[in-house]
Specification:
It catalyses: Hydrolysis of terminal, non-reducing beta-D-glucosyl residues with release of beta-D-glucose. This protein is of the alpha/beta class. The protein is built from 24 helices and 25 strands. It starts with 12 loop residues before the first helix and ends in a 5-residue tail after the last helix. Bound molecules: 1-deoxynojirimycin.
Amino acid sequence: MMTLNYNNPDLSTEERVSSLLSLMSLEEKIGQLCQSPMLEYDSKKQEYLSQVRSGLVGSRILADTAWAGNAPGETVDPEQINEIQRVAVEQSRLGIPVIFARDVIYGQSTVLPIPLAQSCSWNASLVTDAYRDVALEASSLGINWTFAPMMDVVRDPRWGRVIESFGEDPLLNGAMAAAVVKGFQGDDLASPGSLVSCAKHFVGYGASESGCDYDTTEISENTLANVYLPPFKAAINAGVKTFMSGFNDLGGTPVTSSKDLINGWLKKDHGFDGFVVSDWGSISDLHHFRVARDEVHAAAMALDAGVDMAMTSEAYQDHLHTALEAGLVTIQQIDDAVSRVLTVKFEAGLFEHPYVDAEKAQLCQRAPEHTNRAKELAQQSMVLLKNRDNLLPLVQNETKVAVVGPHAHTQRQHLGSWCLDGKSDDVVSIYQGIKDLIGEQNVLTEYSALTDEWVESAHRADVVVLCVGESHRSSGEARNIAELKLPSGQEEAIEAIANTGKPFVVVQCGGRPMPSQAISRHADAHLMAWQCGTETGAAVADLLFGRACPSGKLTMTFPKSTGQIPIYYNKKPLGKMRDFADYRGYKDVDRAPLYPFGYGLSYAKFRYSDVELMSVADGKVKIGFTLSNLSPIKATEICQLYFSRAYSSCTRPEKELIGFERVDIEACSSRHVEFEVDIDGLGYFETIADYVNPKSAVTFLVGPNSDDLLPLECTSSQLYQTEVN
Ligand code: NOJ
């Protein structure tokens, strides 16, 4: 039989894959399933290149530890990437290109806000555009594949990796994850400006016990199906090409060995046709979890579960051969995994354009349209939490502003912990941003770390911008905290500024919702600025001085105290709620959060009214309402729609987000706004496989946040008939 030329781009991907597969030796096949970090590349170069020449390296990860974000050592060097690729393409027997991977989580040279902050923009299309820019910058350097987005639903802000998540709501998490996938992969994955995206960490990793990283997860099937899996479904629908299996043990089965979840839910039930990579070392971890007898057994378990590629190589390189000989895996399983990897390589256009133009790469880094978009996203990501007596926006030129505090001049901090390539020097500090906007003559500052020097500046100013918050070293992978509190000394510093009697704004930086008694008690205004990337200072300045109007809203509940965790808006009703609601809480702190999910202020005041059922037809329900802007400024309001079922066959949350929209509204005007909801979307999973939607009366709830909502009652006959009576 004549073998087709797999290098011919006119053939279908399927034909190219099967032709190539038919020519491969077992070693070459296993090689495609291995991702090597190539540690100490320079000193071990010949050894690595000889492995590449022998077809043993399917992928290279540009990272040197499992927690690459914490100590980025490995850099991206397009010349080095070309050097390795040339050996793969021109000197290996079959010329299969290597796929180069790096954690481009939220930025390359232009660094966006951390994902938790981005989600507060509730602006999926802006997120897509911003990630398109990131994809251009990263791919131009030779990166083909990135390990993002992370869509782990999070309910515990002690966990350091909440920075990488889009928050506590499954719907919003899925919408943002899909937006990132679209940005990275673009309309044409084969175009040189696109990156292969990876949905992670499949699944449940966000529920790590006690907020400790890598910890056990215990999630009921019902919660897994309704809360943790839906964002991954959204990523599949968005066309994501790869998945990463998490580090976690989920109810007795480490996910990396879960046949039910990977081969079952993901590949069989949801038709995912890309490939699955393990997390760093999570295949060997099966041995350490003591569910695999040895490393060979671990490799067999992972492949059998559906993990196609091993990050890092040794798990498959050293053991898959033996597993095959021992009959623990079959050649068909290996072939299936190899076909999946090759399919993505063909689809990503690696065979057509394996190399990068190292000189051209520099031209697109930090292009003005990228930094402008990053600034816009930063502005929309920051959340105004408090604004007593409308202290903000500050009046430019009439005010002397003291910009002080531990974060007044920081730069590296705003890049957050999962940023491998952004440069501190490119970050606009908060002081710099304010100075650039209002002129040096209007700003006072202190470079000193001494609180009494800040106090002295405050005395000499009309208003103080006090920049506080945790450092980037307190969040990210393997960086959890037991107590949600500002770093030592900051509560006192806030009190000291308050004692000057000067009006003051607290700008809080950090990677998680973090309450502060002093901010709550004393600050006149409070802007949650998160870690918003290279354009942070410019965005803060625009918001404080009214060049931009705050619109961001929280996607993770802000607790009052650590003891309230887990705290999230979509709680379930309790049987005892009828008479005993008062006994439910704590004696020492009330149960309400400091700020609820969806909360955030604007400089405009909005009013919601006239919520009405517009129509029910073709499986959709339309809900309308009037949004009024009572202020003399144009603004944007993130309108939210929740629903609550009167009856379900299993317990369901008191309310669930089902729609949201950023609505631009002119000064002193009103607008009619409509939400259209699929009636099918009012259902839920009873078990992983059973989605049901029993007829029930439903209350729709419209408003500015999860705690301030106008109800619209719909009977089940209204909803489940074709016409409104
Ligand atoms: C471990 C992390 O869990 C994962 O998110 C990351 O992509 C890999 N390390 C690679 O750096």
